[in-house]
Design brief:
The chain starts with a helix and ends with a helix. Strands 1-2-5-3-4 form a five-stranded mixed β-sheet, with helices on both faces. It has about 180 residues and is of the alpha+beta class. Helix content is about 35%, strand content about 25%.
Amino acid sequence: MNDMRDELRELFVDFTGHEADGLWSAPGRVNLIGEHTDYNDGFVLPLALGFGVRATVRPRSDGALLITSAQHPDDAVVRVSLTGLAPGSVRGWPAYVAGVFWALGQQGHRLGGAEVAVDGDVPTGAGLSSSAALECSVAAAVSDAFGLGLTRTALVQLTRLSENAFVGVPNGIMDQSAS
């Protein structure tokens, strides 16, 4: 994991020209019981994994969201304007990052923009909540970097709003709670 942290720090410096102020991490999860029952009022027992997603965030003041990922080097840098950010306006993996910023805006937080770099080892598409790990690591990083002071409960609610309303995935809070 230390190699991945070092790689993310190097990616961030290459991406922004600045050292990262911090590194935030959220794990993927596996279910012992309860697949697809959390949003149907059923019982669940998720377990956090040793695999996770790490994020670094640096505030900007120009209304731009710049996103890069070690897993998507072909995308280089994805640029999104926070002005007019709406569900469906960003597609693919960057939507999970942009959705966090959209959800914060829905909750009344006005952010001027950010540079976000992510890296992770949760296999995507394997049912291990790589999307929740991505959202939660970014949300925790944004909360600290912008001094929002969001509680873990608030982060769970924020990332669920992001995934449900911005990305369009109808899930409950199990994945985000585990992450």
